[in-house]
Write a structure and sequence with these properties.
Blueprint (H helix, E strand, L loop, with lengths): L7 E5 L3 H13 L3 E5 L2 H10 L4 E5 L7 H11 L5 E5 L4 H9 L4 E4 L4 H17 L16 H14 L5 E4 L6 H10 L8 E5 L5 H9 E2 L11 E2 L1 H4 L4 E5 L6 H13 L1 E2 L8 E2 L3 E6 L3 H6 L5 H7 L2 E4 L10 H15 L6 E2 L1 H8 L6 H15 L4 E2 L1 H9 L31 H19 L4 H8 L3 H10 L4
Parallel strand pairs: 1-2, 1-3, 3-4, 4-5, 6-13, 6-14, 7-10, 10-13, 15-16
Antiparallel strand pairs: 8-9, 11-12
Helix pairs in contact: 2-3, 6-7, 10-12, 13-15, 14-16, 17-18, 18-19
Amino acid sequence: MSEPLKGNVLLVEDDRAVAKVLGALLTQAGLTVHTAWSGEEALTLLRQMPIDVVVSDVRMPGMSGMELLTEVTRSCPEVPVVLMTAHGTVPMAVEAMRAGAADFILKPFDRQEILFTLRKTLLRAQGEPPPAVLRTGAFVGRSAAMAEVEALLTRAAAGTATVLLRGESGTGKELAARALHDASPRRSGPFVKLHCAALPETLLESELFGYEKGAFTGAAARKPGRVELAHGGTLFLDEIGDITLSVQVKLLRLIQEREFERLGGTQTLKVDVRFVAATHRSLEEMVKRGEFREDLFYRLNVVPVGLPPLRARPEDIEPLARHFLEAHAKANGRQPFTLTPEALQTLQAQPWPGNVRQLQNFMERLVVLSDGPLLTGGDVARELARQPGLTPSFAPSAPASPPLPPTAPSGTEPGTLDAQRRGTERQALLDALQRARDNRTLAARLLGVSRRTLYNKLEEHGLL
């Protein structure tokens, strides 16, 4: 018997009878269900409470499910959306997946089918870091290293060879994969991604290859996998180094023969897909340890492209910082900002272990938390001091504004290290909420945590 599901579901359904039945089913499975009768109401609820997954009908009066998907992807990119439709076809599935849907369910739905879909969606959401809101910028810069990457991607885009993207987290591997697809003759086809590290082996296989009705408990209808959805386009396999040996065997056959079978099926299907894989791990070392098949490694490593960490191209920090500053100011309705030379020096002195993604998030934090329009070394140093693992390596001429004195929470001895830590944490929460005008999603992004973590901290400090 499978474990009960845990999490908050936002059910968006205009048919009250369907909502009642489905809500009772999900509640019985262990989920906490919040119901919205329209897309507009759903967006309001998303701003007010922590939600782990949205389940929405496609056809509704007013805002449709596809339009809601677009808004959720823009404002709460870490929240997966599962769409329900009575008119489910593979073309609609392709459109939904390309628009950012986590999955889709066909009406009339089967109990096991919908619970199976939600289980894998929640597992995948827990395993994937929230995507950046602004995906542009990884190729902004003037370094020779990134010029070489762009040249490689441009040449590789014209062909069909498999590309293996190597690099640390946050260096822009998904952006590189998208750029490769957009520059290729397959640009009009789907770009489908699969995060291989986010799912256990059994769910990964069904997600990759799809399944036939009755293939396992919960398989109430035939379901196309990501390979099938990517037909005519590009399949991006992120964190390919995390798949098991048994899945590696099936993936090898898929790449070699361009054919596969759905789980529980006997029909061999042909597929026209271009493969792009990415990993932060050393596949060569994994091959030596017997953790990764050597033949699969050579199949993947046809066109290797290494994305350098930000610390290896410090000359790109300035153009990247200015790019993100302009983009985030526009996105947040702020006037343009200007960086002083001291501010730039302080930014360039940082190691940025999270690479471009960390710099991007930091610049958004500066935009929201600074009065502007001039950002000084003191402004940068103040926000660096609030970031775990970062400290200002350059002493700006203008000292940072002193933080408000923390208040020791009840039950904690004033003056102790724990009291000071909790007091500082509470003040950071209050500051983020004030700057974000009580927008919890934005506050979580400013603090660099998930919405779930933010709500847990707010409850812990009595701020809900």
